[in-house]
Design brief:
The chain contains four helices and 16 strands. By secondary structure, the protein is α+β, with helices and mostly antiparallel strands. It has three domains: about 35-45 and about 235-340, Efflux pump adaptor protein, beta barrel domain (Elongation Factor Tu (Ef-tu), domain 3, Beta Barrel), CATH 2.40.30; about 50-80 and about 200-225, RNA polymerase II/Efflux pump adaptor protein, barrel-sandwich hybrid domain (OB fold (Dihydrolipoamide Acetyltransferase, E2P), Beta Barrel), CATH 2.40.50.100; about 80-195. A six-stranded antiparallel barrel has the order 1-12-15-14-13-16. It has a four-stranded antiparallel beta sheet with strand order 2-11-9-4, with no helix packed on it. A four-stranded antiparallel beta sheet has the order 8-5-3-10. Helix 2 (about 80-135) packs antiparallel against helix 3 and helix 2 (about 80-135) packs antiparallel against helix 4.
Length: about 350
């Protein structure tokens, strides 16, 4: 083989290598934008602080730190004796109010009966006066008898008016609004509030979760509304993956994603893009509020901003449970979101 032939073969080989490198570079570039990938990601879950509705010393503690609990499980109990005493007092006050209401209703019924009786007496007196007045011209009765009938009618009318006023007073004392009495309803509300306080002394898990940051013991005073420990909500897990803004156009809500966790290097988890962040906190401090902060990794070049992408994870595997804060690597695959029209982002 001559030198010329060798040179030609060398040039062809060089051209082939350069072309292959260029094609590989273009393919890698296309693949990166088609299926964005980031290792700036972490597992997340909802953290709910547990705080009692009532205050008091803890008399029973049923959980330990990092324990798994189910919805309805008893977490701890607060001394209920003061609240039970208040409940007993509220129930006694309700009984007195109901007894007073019954007495007032009885008084109103008696007043109604008295008004009816006085009205009947007034009607009888009026009828008697009419009869004796017709007999006076014929001399069957005396003038004194007629005058006595008139006096009895006036007395009956006055008694009826007095009974009517007494009935109105009894009705006002009853303080009725329809069939309800304000004082009784207030007493019933007090009883219900006291019953709730007694129930609140038993603090139960609102959902399936893991106990975390438990640093209390029996005897410690739990204050109303003050968190004593937290629960990691295990009902839903997701990954917050920070992607450069140049990749955002390639990500759609509903797209499939591969998630790898450093804790399980040989296990692939499936995820679905739930949404892309609309705002982040500016590094110069010009934005206020509770926006997510995504810090740049370099400060000597102008970097593309990173926006958080929320990726809902598949249900947890009991053998490989998720842990909040675990490092993740995410690759957006597309798929479901590419087959259907997506809303504007």
């Amino acid at each position: 083989m001559g030198d010329g032939t060798r040179r030609r073969l060398g040039r062809i080989l060089e051209t082939t290598i350069v072309a292959g490198a260029l094609v590989t570079t273009l393919w890698a570039w296309w693949l990166t934008y088609r299926h964005p990938r980031t290792d700036d990601a972490a597992v997340r879950a909802n953290i709910v602080g547990i705080a009692p509705h009532v205050g008091g010393p803890i008399v029973e503690l049923r959980v330990v730190d990092n324990q798994a609990v189910h919805a309805g499980d008893l977490l701890f109990t607060i001394d209920a004796r003061p609240y039970e005493a208040r409940l007993a007092a509220a129930r006694a006050a309700l009984s007195l109010a109901e007894a007073d209401l019954a007495a007032q209703r009885d008084a109103l019924g008696a007043a109604d009966a008295e008004v009816s009786r006085r009205m009947a007496e007034e009607a009888y007196a009026g009828d008697y006066l009419h009869r004796v007045q017709t007999l006076l011209p014929r001399g069957f009765v005396t003038t004194d008898r007629v005058e006595d009938a008139r006096m009895k009618l006036r007395a009956a009318t006055a008694s009826r008016e007095s009974a009517t006023k007494e009935r109105a007073r009894a009705e006002k004392l009853l303080a009725q609004v329809g069939d309800l009495n304000a004082s009784v309803e207030a007493a019933r509300a007090a009883v219900r509030s006291a019953e709730l306080d007694v129930e609140y002394c038993r603090v139960v898990a609102p959902f399936d979760a893991y106990v975390t940051n438990l640093n209390i013991a029996v005897g410690e005073y739990a204050r109303e509304g003050q968190q004593v420990f937290a629960l990691v909500d295990t009902r839903e897990w997701w990954v917050i993956a920070n992607f450069r803004e140049t990749y955002v156009r390639s990500i759609r809500p509903g797209a499939n994603a591969d998630v790898f966790l450093m804790a399980y290097p040989h296990r692939r988890f499936h995820g679905v893009v739930q949404g892309i962040g609309w705002a982040i906190r500016a590094s110069d401090g010009t934005a206020a509020g509770i926006l997510p902060a995504v810090e740049p990794t370099l400060d000597w070049v102008r970097l593309a901003q990173r926006f958080p992408v929320r990726i809902r994870l598949e249900p947890a595997d009991p053998e490989r449970p998720y842990r909040m804060g675990a490092t993740a690597v995410v690759t957006i695959l597309g798929g479901a979101a590419d087959d259907a029209a997506q809303p504007a982002r």
